[in-house]
Amino acid sequence: MGTAKILVVGGVQGQLKKAFEKISKLQAKQNFNLVLIVGDLFGQDDSSHSEELELLLQGRINVPLPTYFTVGDLSFPEKVKAKLEGDDDLCANLFYLGRKGTMTTTEVVKIVYLGGRLVQNEASLTQKLGKCDPLYLDNDARGLHGAHSAHILVTNEWPANITNGSKIPLPEGVKGDQGTQSISNLCQALKPWYHFASSPAGVWEREPFKHVVDYSSLEELAVTRFKALPNVSAPTKEWMTAFSLDTSRPPPTVEPPGVSPFIRSSPPRKRQALEDQPYSRYANGGQEGRHYKRARRNQNKDPNDCFMCLNKPGAKTHLVVSLGEESMVTASRGPLPLPSTFPQLSFTGHVMIIPYYHAADELAQGKRSIEEMANEFKEMNRFRKALSTMIGTKSQGQLGTVCWEVNRTGIRHHHWQLMACQAEQVKKGLVEAAFKVAGERHEYPPFQPCDPDSLLPQRSDYFRVWTWVSDPVETADHTNGNDEKDFGVAKSMYFPLPNEQRFNIWFGREVMAGLLQLENRVNWMDALLRKDGSEQLAEEEDAQGLRTDFEEFDFAMK
């Protein structure tokens, strides 16, 4: 078993320089294990992209990591066909998988792929399909059933009926009724964890869905996440998607998965053993996957309320700025500061550090080990330090930071909030005093000091706050190259939350609103950003500002 960081890219359609330059920039920050291209890598065989193709074949376009492609809708250019007749490696790090087959990576990620378009009238074929033909037969799809399982299924076409039961609308120009039954049957047979397909006009991702199993089957419940990626030339920028895959366990779902969209479709036909042999690029391509039990959820919790989970349908993924191994950094929805509060920064100054682990899962799965919690804390604390360093550096020491955590049994998803504040307020103890006075006013337990770089002795039910500040001289030294060690002064304090005591989960925001004299923005719903009447447009702008400021300090994306 292993873990792999995977980048999936939509159809490139001959825009090779644009695509691989973007991939190279991401790879320099993220260190992916591999790239999968869905759809057409090349465009029409004409002069429009011939220069870029020539550069690629000569090795003058950098392909920074192993990148795999199959056929899409279009035939390959003649130069590509000629090169692939004798070799599947088009150039360094760029590999042609073939029209169909399976591949198991060194991280033990099992990938099944089927490129091209379905031949609707097989009787019309005058010769056997060639290695590079952008077509497939129903028999090709059925032959892949013998792979039995897959972590990732990649197809050019959509499965028929995939939109059934989904509440996610299709983007303009995207038609969901053109899928094929052959791919529906393949998806049902393999029950992949992820299924990616091509969608030239726009991105579409449906809710995760569970597969139907026979009553006599011993298989555990299997869940698939389907996403269709647009071409590089599509108006949307969402032609790439990245994720980490741990082959030891299926990715968790935020809410109970939906019903299979294929219920009304014909079940995959059983084949004889000889016909069930999968096409494989590597000798271990037929290795069977494993199934894992899903923990029963606490039925009293509505997971739709957990807007922090990325795999929740409709998640605000445009807020995400950085993805680590255990946690992520996002811009804050409804930030407390105004866009004009901290002119030294390119964003509002309000950030979220969110662990991937869903707090409510402990109710179903039992308590995590101290080691798991320590790894999560270590990375989140590293994000806290990096964000603080960024804010201190960008402001030349004029700003410090305040970070707080509400850890309360019953909260669906714990998280940390980090905000910029005036450095003088931290240095003079005004921030610490404000929290203590507010705590006394609410009759909360007194604050106790704690090590800012350590987990608390109690694993839950507490409120914790960190303050951080540097000074201009120290910031200048850091900027001039001394960036390998922590700098600035961090302090932390906390108080326990007795089970019987009521607690205002907006306590941290309430205190900071008083310090900023923005009491009318305590409720995040009263502080939603808007630009030209659009919340998302304003939030995207804020996230991009944070991304720009944080880029050189972001250890997770390097």
From TrEMBL:
Compositionally biased spans, kind Pro residues: 249-259
Domain Cwf19-like protein C-terminal: start-end pairs: 488-555
Any one GO BP annotation for this protein: mRNA splicing, via spliceosome
Region entry Disordered, spans: 244-299
One Pfam family hit: CwfJ_C_1
MF annotations from Gene Ontology: RNA lariat debranching enzyme activator activity
Sequence ranges assigned to domain Cwf19-like C-terminal in this UniProt record: 296-428
GO cellular component: post-mRNA release spliceosomal complex
UniProt cross-references to PANTHER family, sorted A to Z: CWF19, CELL CYCLE CONTROL PROTEIN, CWF19-LIKE PROTEIN 1
Name by which UniProt lists this protein: Uncharacterized protein
Organism from which the protein derives: Exophiala dermatitidis (Black yeast-like fungus)
